Amino acid sequence: MHPFVRRFLPVFAATLLFAAGARAERIVQVNEIGIGPRVFDQPSVAANGSTIHVAFVGDSTGGNPQIPSTALFYAAVNGAADFTSTATTRSQVIVTPAVPIDNGPYTQARHPQIALRSANRVVILFQALPSDNPAAGFKLFRALISLDNNVVTAQQVSEVRDSLGGRMAGTLIDPSFALVTSDNTARVAYVENAIDVRYARVGLDNALLVGAPIPLTVLPASQGVLPLPRLRLDSLNRSHIAWAANNNGGTASGVYYALVKQASTGVDNLAIGATQVLPGGYRWGFPNVLVAANSRILVLAADEPFGPTDGRGIAGSIGVSLLNPDGVVQDGLPVAFPNVGSSASFFLSPPGQSVLGTNFDAYRPEAAVDGNNRVYIAGYGFVSGESPLRGTPGRFYSMTLSGVTTSAGTVAQFAEMASSPLPVGDGELAFAGTIPGDYTRPAFARYSGKSVLFWSGPEILSGGRNLYVTSVSSAADPVAPASQSGCSAVDDPRRGGAGSIPGAAVLLLPAALLALRRLARKAFAG
Length: 526
What we know:
Elements: H1 10-21, E1 28-29, E2 39-48, E3 51-59, E4 71-78, H2 90-93, E5 94-101, E6 106-118, E7 121-130, E8 139-148, E9 151-159, E10 172-180, E11 185-192, E12 196-203, E13 214-215, E14 230-233, E15 239-244, E16 255-264, E17 267-278, E18 284-293, E19 296-303, E20 318-323, E21 347-348, E22 354-355, E23 363-369, E24 375-380, E25 392-401, E26 415-424, E27 431-432, E28 443-447, E29 450-458, E30 465-473, E31 484-485, H3 502-525
Antiparallel strand pairs: 1-30, 2-3, 2-31, 3-4, 4-5, 6-7, 7-8, 8-9, 10-11, 11-12, 12-13, 14-15, 15-16, 16-17, 18-19, 19-20, 20-21, 20-22, 23-24, 24-25, 25-26, 25-27, 28-29, 29-30
Helix pairs in contact: 1-3
């Protein structure tokens, strides 16, 4: 990315960095320590109790960080570690040291997503170039990892192929998936040939398609460059999928939603076709889909500006839409007035296609919903004007949305903060980078009143980047036994320019003043 902290306006930069430092969270690198400008990036996590399983990609050779040769890695982290103590050692944080997952069939791994098949079996889907024919372009790969006493005892990587074992056509990227253990399959959304979103069912053991993929972007308006589909299952094993219809220009775009459900054993049907759930006017990107309940689906995305200031990490507006897929006829058509019922029964209001206030702004967010229907957001981005530091510092907060747990119309305010936005990381390490020409996204898992966060930040001496982990405290609640979060991106800034988000900067001020006062005491004492 850009040089991380070489160029800055001292006063504002110091305020932000001291605000981060005031929390004194312990920061640990997940990848193993080595020599040279190595690059580790694109984390995805799945939690089982206090153990947080992590998939990421990395180049451990110490080569050229501008042209990394990345393999898939697996590690596990102790979510119960005391990140608030600087005395906490790395060995107390790392449960399973990073292990390369590579038995030869691929090169250039990217964008892994991880899920748990059981407490000691892990499944990872990722994109990579096949070793036997890199010119074929990116394909999907499935990794199976077996664990015994937190040690990787077996690993298997296979290319995902069609039901007859043939290589799938096209360039295939950005998988998002969930497991159905009853039939040993993964329900997968992915991108074909850069703009088309597909749904498929994949056998876990043989990595073969079950049936033919279902095209979701039949309507040209629903196609997008970097659509980054997200898939989540509800309790009925229905697949809720959201993606962005962005393009390579600055035109505003929408976010689309589709529902796929099982029609009979091994057969999936499109239940709700591509329906725009966040309207144009903003250039929405990097969507999340969250299942609050079977009939309450939350779609969330952030504004992704386009132009000469791209890549500076300014947080963008957050858009949310709360949907009831059971409020309309599920006949495979998009939700529209003529064919499947009133959109008033599909878009729950509030919030229903809302743009949240500036305090909620984030840069390429990762989101999760807990058992108490609080929504957690991890992202990057300065919150006002042009970034004085050409990088993307992390920020994290939680919020409540009206309509997630209450009946429509009972709460007038769309959203409110459950915790003030907090900086993630400390000093230079807080500033995320990205693989050139690619993207990154933070990942996090909830555990016992805190969120454990992962991001790719600079390795100061070598010029490369490590995968770091720390925690921030937030409201105590039960953690789901197998929650997911994953990789998506960091390149563009916020639309709107200076002065657009003064409120969030004020939230950082008390911590910054406290840090400055402590620093002054040390200076006078020394």
